[in-house]
Design goal:
4 strands, 114 residues, 4-stranded parallel sheet, 30% helix, 4 helices, globular, alpha/beta
Length: 114
């Protein structure tokens, strides 16, 4: 289970604010939070994926494709590089999501295990 304290780790506070970038609105002062989740073959991977989708639907961050990072897909790499914060949600203690994410400069990385 992901706790509220995880979502406040390292200065990232997803709770109680909107953390996405709109293409149509003024984004001055917005913090771009990109969420990556394990979507592994186990039930734990499915839980991590569902958790990321709920956070994205709540507009607490923007979910992106972890496989695209592994595949070095340019638009998905650019999205990660432009993030202020990166949230990695893993399904198990192997931490595949966290380990798949390279460090892109100064972003903070919040690591959660569901």
């Amino acid at each position: 289970m992901i706790s509220g304290s995880c979502l406040r780790t390292g200065g990232i506070n997803l709770l109680g604010s909107k953390n996405f970038v709109s293409e149509t609105e003024d984004n001055a002062g917005s913090k771009r939070i990109v969420i990556y989740a394990c979507s592994g073959c186990s039930d734990a991977g499915e839980l991590a994926d569902r958790t990321a989708r709920v956070l994205s639907q709540m507009e607490l961050g923007e979910m992106s494709c972890l496989a695209g990072i592994g595949g070095r897909v340019k638009p998905l790499m650019a999205k990660a590089e432009q993030a202020d914060h990166i949230v990695a949600i893993d399904g198990c203690p192997l931490n595949c999501a966290r380990l798949a994410l390279p460090r892109f400069g100064g972003q903070e990385l919040c690591e959660c295990v569901s």
